[in-house]
Design brief:
The complex is a heterotrimer of chains A (393), B (119) and C (325). By secondary structure, chain B is of the alpha+beta class. Chain B is built from three helices and five strands. In chain B, the strands form two sheets. Chain B has a three-stranded antiparallel beta sheet with strand order 2-3-5. Chain C has 325 residues and is an all-alpha fold. In chain C, helix 3 runs antiparallel to helix 11. The chains are: A alpha+beta (393), B alpha+beta (119), C mainly alpha (325).
Chain lengths: 393, 119, 325
């Protein structure tokens, strides 16, 4: 059979966000994949360079709707390190609580989406119902269900009251019970097993080669988690373990995420019970000294990297955001090969793609009518050229 | 099987949905909702306009005599907010020295006109 | 079985013919959605929602995709609806159907296949990638489930020694339900019905996350309304058929003296049995996800077909021992 190019996206019912890829198929089997991740370029990095450290945090939270705390924390952690601020432990614990609540809500949401992709809408409804608990907790603690706005350079903006802590602790057992049910359902639901097991295989060698991060990598047996390997905020003080799986397929990724749900619940409970007393922030200076810093954070989808360059002003000179989805995308092109067309949504959903966050660059033709492509050499030449120009003036 | 058990349990229990206009969604204390300006407290310092990430607060000239901590002063400016540009981050509330700009515990409305002003 | 022409017209047009059929189809649809919603802990639609949807869609603009054959595109949903509604006339609702004849079982099975063929046609005519793929998937699925489904539904005929649905139902009145004689056939029949109605886990042709809505993608306005109605009617006809073949239909094992009372009792039996079947189908729908077409192929031919052949062997063996026939 001749090879046919099947265009998917930018608007496609399986993917809630616009991404454009061309699948090359031979009959029902996929032979290759071409990606275009620059469909929703928003210029958020440039916008971040225009705002001072107070105003940039709410902007960076809006890089991603789901891991908003991840982006905010990664940024403020970097700036705090540049400014050499000592953040009080209570602030670190509150950041950890919000981070883990965010991870839980993201993973529960993913589980629902994964079930929906294989047509199991019941689990979708149930998981999203139980996700409301985490959302309510976040709303009570931070003042909003999304884009929590709890971070600022120097600490957190809100303290937890004893009432909030007891109310949060009292709602955790119910959530734990529901998560245990999901474990049971995922392990035993026949149609989900049929659609998840052995689909989208990624061996450990491939996972390392293509630089996957987060649950995608951990499901392939890569024992790697920033929270343990380069502990930030309060993770070094909390007992927890990294969940891994060796199967490397969509089912493995599901198991890793569900395992992480249970771990996150434990972390939240520990943090709430052992919340240290004290300040929730220190006053931060207005300007940051000249420095370059790489801030790493384990977002729900994997390792998130913020590269920040400061230049003795009250705003960053350059910020570069590498979202976990970008790291995982290339692995999709590999795990899709030799799979069935009907499995495209499942495999794509399995890395939990967050497409609008991923888009960092768009190359436009002269008049901006068409997007263009650039090779790696062209891009690095372009980078060298513009940095020379910058140094000159 | 857990799916079947959950199905039957749900069949005979109340739906989880909140039928919104009829039943109200509980709003917790400290919710960052609709933005509001308490005009008589504002001292016209412009800090809210400077910290607003969405740049939706502008200061307009308004010479009024107000009372702060028993003293009478004359303020030069007061803020206006482009209501639907507000992202409700709460920075203005945090940085306001006189609690003159607040996020109410009330759901913010939606609309299409980006130029609607809160005075 | 002859009847007064006026009564016959009433039977066809009002009760239990078209008017009742449409009302019951909307009601079953409502119930199906409501049960599914409550199992998912949602609120679900109000009683008149399916009817309101139908009226609303009738009033919507009909959009012709570029280059489509309008005549065929308009005709296919009507043919499908007519087939499904005709099939219902042979299903016993209050006692035997007045149209019953030897072989109406085959006719009903044939008529119930027509909606799927119409869907395939619609998908093919739409000139849309998603529709064509969906149409092909619908027919592929037809080849997989149809054989076990037909075999399972013909088993009662073999045992009762009649090809008339009403007579098969009457035979069960004298003996026992075929669901007890042929449990495998009953289960395969239910699975086949679920597949015929393209409900989970067999909603492969309209898999929304893969191919938008399959053959339904380009349907708008009254075409969409009629096709939806066809599926609702097919649900009634299908569950009525299963109820008649395996659960004894509306016929009572004993006679009740005034005929009108026995009619009411029979009607109640019909309602009760179809609702029970609907409950089973809705539970399957809620409890499962969608499988892939190649997986369905494996399951259908490996397990469903061999299970039905086993059932055929059992029936033949029972027949040679003098049970039934």
């Amino acid at each position: 059979m001749p090879q046919v190019i099947l265009p998917i996206g930018p608007q496609h019912p399986a993917l809630k966000e616009p991404v454009n890829f061309k699948v090359i198929v031979d009959g029902e089997t996929i032979v290759g994949l071409e990606l275009d991740v620059s469909y929703t370029h928003r210029g958020i990095e440039k916008a971040a360079e225009q705002r001072d450290f107070i105003r940039v945090v709410p902007l960076l939270e809006r890089v991603c709707g789901i891991c908003s705390h991840a982006h905010g924390t990664a940024f403020v952690m970097g700036i705090e390190e540049v400014m050499q601020l000592e953040i009080p432990p209570r602030a670190q614990y509150i950041r950890t609580i919000v981070a883990e609540l965010e991870r839980m809500h993201s993973h529960i949401l993913w589980l629902g989406v994964a079930a929906h992709v294989v047509g199991f809408n019941t689990l979708f409804m149930w998981t999203w119902r139980d996700r409301e608990t985490t959302q309510d907790l976040l709303e009570e603690m931070t003042g909003n269900r999304m884009n929590y706005g709890i971070n600022e350079v120097g600490g957190v903006r809100r303290d937890l009251t004893p009432g909030q802590i007891t109310s949060a602790l009292s709602r955790l057992p119910k959530l734990e019970e529901q998560i245990a049910k999901y474990v049971d359902m995922v392990m035993n639901q026949e149609t989900m097993l049929l659609r998840f097991r052995g689909i989208g295989k990624l061996s450990k060698a491939e996972a390392l080669k293509y630089g996957t991060v987060g649950p995608t990598a951990r499901a392939s047996g890569v024992d790697y988690d920033i929270r343990r390997d380069d502990p930030y905020i309060a993770y070094s003080e909390i007992p927890w373990k990294v969940v891994t799986d060796t199967s490397g397929d969509v089912f493995g990724r599901t198991l890793v995420r569900i395992g992480e749900l249970q771990e996150s619940l434990g972390i939240i409970r520990y943090c709430l019970e052992h919340l240290p007393e004290g300040q929730i922030g220190v006053p931060a200076p207005k300007v940051a000294p000249v420095a370059e810093i790489l801030s790493r954070y384990e977002a729900p989808r994997g390792e998130l990297v913020h590269f920040i360059r400061t230049n003795n002003t009250d705003r960053v000179e350059r910020i570069d955001i590498r979202t976990p989805t970008l790291a995982n995308w290339t692995s999709v092109t590999v795990s899709l090969v030799n799979q069935n067309i009907a499995d495209i949504p499942v495999i794509v959903a399995a890395i939990d793609p967050c497409l609008s966050c991923t888009s960092r660059i768009t190359i436009l033709s002269e008049r901006g009518r068409k997007t263009a492509e650039m090779t790696w050499d062209q891009l690095s030449e372009y980078g060298r050229k513009s940095s020379r120009e910058r140094d000159r003036c | 099987m857990s799916v079947l058990r959950e199905m039957l349990e749900n069949l005979f229990s109340r739906p989880f949905t909140i039928l919104y206009p009829k039943e109200k969604v509980p709003i917790p204390v400290g919710f960052r909702g609709k933005i509001a300006i308490v005009d008589e407290k504002c001292i016209g310092c412009s800090r809210c306009a400077r910290v607003c990430p969405a740049e939706c607060i502008t200061m307009i000239p308004d010479e009024t005599e107000i009372e702060v901590k028993g003293k009478k002063i004359v303020r030069k400016k007061r803020p206006v907010v482009k209501f639907f540009r507000c992202i409700r981050c709460g920075l203005c509330e945090q940085y306001c020295p006189s609690e003159a700009i607040i996020m109410k515990c009330q759901l913010s409305e939606s609309g299409t006109d980006k130029e609607v002003l809160v005075q | 079985m002859l009847m007064d022409p006026l009564l016959l017209a009433v039977y066809i047009l009002i009760f239990p013919g078209f008017l009742f059929l449409l009302a019951y189809a909307f009601f079953l649809q409502y119930l199906d959605r409501k049960i599914a919603a409550r199992m998912q802990q949602r609120v679900g639609p109000p009683l008149l929602q399916p009817f309101a949807d139908f009226i609303k869609m009738l009033g919507k603009e009909v959009i012709d995709p570029a280059g489509v054959d309008r005549m065929a595109f308009d005709a296919a949903p009507v043919v499908a609806l007519a087939a499904a509604m005709t099939a219902f006339l042979y299903i016993p609702v209050v006692g035997e159907s007045p149209f019953a004849f030897q072989g109406d079982l085959v006719l009903v099975l044939y008529l119930l296949t027509l909606p799927t063929i119409a869907l395939f046609l619609l998908g093919w005519l739409s000139r849309n990638v998603f529709s064509s793929v969906g149409g092909v998937r619908a027919v592929t699925m037809l080849f997989i489930y149809e054989v076990p489904f037909f075999l399972a539904l013909l088993m009662p005929a073999l045992m009762a020694g009649s090809w008339s649905i009403s007579e098969i139902a009457a035979w069960q009145g004298k003996h026992t339900w075929f669901a007890l004689f042929q449990p495998i056939g009953f289960v395969v029949g239910l699975i086949g019905l679920q597949a015929k109605l393209e409900r989970q886990p067999f909603d492969i042709p309209e898999a929304e996350t893969e191919i938008v809505a399959g053959p339904w993608t380009e349907l708008t306005g009254r075409r969409l309304a009629l096709m939806h109605l066809t599926m609702h009617v097919a649900l009634v006809a299908g569950s009525g058929l299963i109820a008649a073949l395996f659960l004894g239909g509306p016929l009572l094992p004993w006679t009740i003296s005034p005929p009108w009372l026995s009619w009411i009792a029979g009607f109640a039996m019909f309602l009760g049995k179809t609702l029970a079947i609907l409950l089973i189908l809705a539970s399957i729908k809620v409890a499962m996800g969608r499988i892939r077409i190649d997986q369905l192929n494996d399951i259908g031919w490996k397990y469903l077909a061999s299970a039905t052949i086993l059932q055929v062997a059992i029936v033949l063996l029972m027949g040679s021992r003098g049970v039934g026939i």
